[in-house]
Amino acid sequence: MEWNWAGNHRYAAARVARPTSVGEAQDLVASADRVRALGTRHSFSGIADTPGLLLSTADLPVDLAVDEADGSVTVGGGARYGDVAVALDGHGRALATMASLPHISVAGAVATGTHGSGDRTGSLAAGVRAVEVIGPDGTLRTVRRGEPDFAGSVVALGTLGVVTRVTLDTEPSYVVRQAVYRDLPWSLVDTDFDALTGAAYSVSLFVDWAGDRIAQVWLKSRTDLPADLFGVVAADEPVHMLAGAPTAAVTGQQGVSGPWHERLPHFKLAFTPSRGEELQSEYLLPRAAVHEAFAALRPLAPRIASVLQISEIRTVAADDLWLSPAYGTDVVGVHFTWVKDIERVFALLPDIEAALLPLGARPHWGKCFAATEVAASYPRMADFRALRARVDPTGKFGNDLVDTLLG
C-alpha cells in the first residue's frame, strides 16, 4: 500500500489506481463508491486518504498548452510544478510564484492553498484561471474564473472531484537573483518586519524561536539585491537552511541571476529536497496580528526547539478563494519543519494552536495540525458546504478527516 512522502501516514485505501488517460479516470470515478485523488503524496496527514479508491494523477497526460492570445497555460493536474515551469520557460512564459519545493503536483498544491512568498504575491491557487474536474458520475466539468462556483472550486481539498486539468496565469519569463543573509538581530522582527519582508520580491526568514537572532534571511529579487540587509552582507558561499545539510540541493544563491524557476523554489527539482525524516506544520496569520502571534510563540521556544529542525516565516497576499488560508486578508505563514517524532510533535501542537488560532491563524490544510474545529475561521464555509452538497451530494469525494474539518 502507498505511503505519503514523509512516511508518517500509510493510506488505508482498498485500491490504488494509476490511470493513464482522463477517460480511464472518468470510468474509475464513476464505478467507485468512495474516491480521493492522490498527487505527489506531499500532505502530512490522511487528508487525501479514503477507504475506497485512491486515484493517482501521476500518470495522466501533462498536455501542456500555452494560449498565445491570453498567455495562460493549461496543464494536467498531476503534473509537477517544476516540470511545468521548465516547459513553460521554453515558451518564454513564467509563473508569478512557486513553492519551496518544485516537486509537488499542480492540482494537489492548489487544492490545499500551498504558497511561495511575497508581500504582493498570492498563493499558487491565486494564479488559477480554470479547473477541469471529474464529478461523481464520471462527467467532466470546467469551472472558470468569474463564474459563480469558481471561488469555491479552486482550494477545495479534493472534495468536489478529481482535478484533471488546471489553467494558470502566466507572464513573460524573467530572471531572479537570490542571496542569503545570516545572523540578523531578532529585534528587527519587532521593529522592522515590514522592511524585512519588503526587501525583495520573495523573502523567507529562518528562525528557531529560542535565540535572539534570525538565523537566515533568503531574498529573491527580480531586480538588484541590496548591498547589505540592515548592515549584514550576503553569504559568499551556498547556504542550506538546515545546519550541515548538503548545499547541492538548494537553488542558486550568491546573487547570481538565473531563470525564475531555478531561483523561486528553495530546492532544485533534480534533488531530494530534505533529509527525508521530517514532519511539517504551518499556520497562516492575518498580517495585522503578526507581532502578537510572535510574542505568544516566544514563551514556547524551549519546547519548540526540542523537536524543531527549522522554522520559516513568509508572507502571502490576500485572495478571494473561499477555503484559502489567505482568504480576505494578507497573511504571514509560520512554518515548522519538525523532527519525525509524531508523539512529541502532536503533544506540542495544541499549545501552539492555543497561541495562534485565537488570533485568526488558519492551519495549512496539507500539513500537521491538531485542531478539528477550523471551519469558523472561513467566512464562506457555509457557501462551500452548499456547493459541495450540490456537486457531490453523496460525499463520494470525502473522508472522515475532511468531513470533520469542513463540518
TrEMBL record:
Taxonomy, superkingdom: Bacteria
Keywords of the record: Oxidoreductase
Keyword ATP-binding part of the UniProt annotation: no
GO MF entry, a single one: L-gulono-1,4-lactone dehydrogenase activity
Pfam families: ALO, FAD_binding_4
Residues in FAD-binding PCMH-type domain copies: 9-173
GO cellular component: membrane
Transmembrane domains' residue ranges: none
Name under which the protein is recorded: Xylitol oxidase
Species per Swiss-Prot/TrEMBL record: Asanoa ferruginea
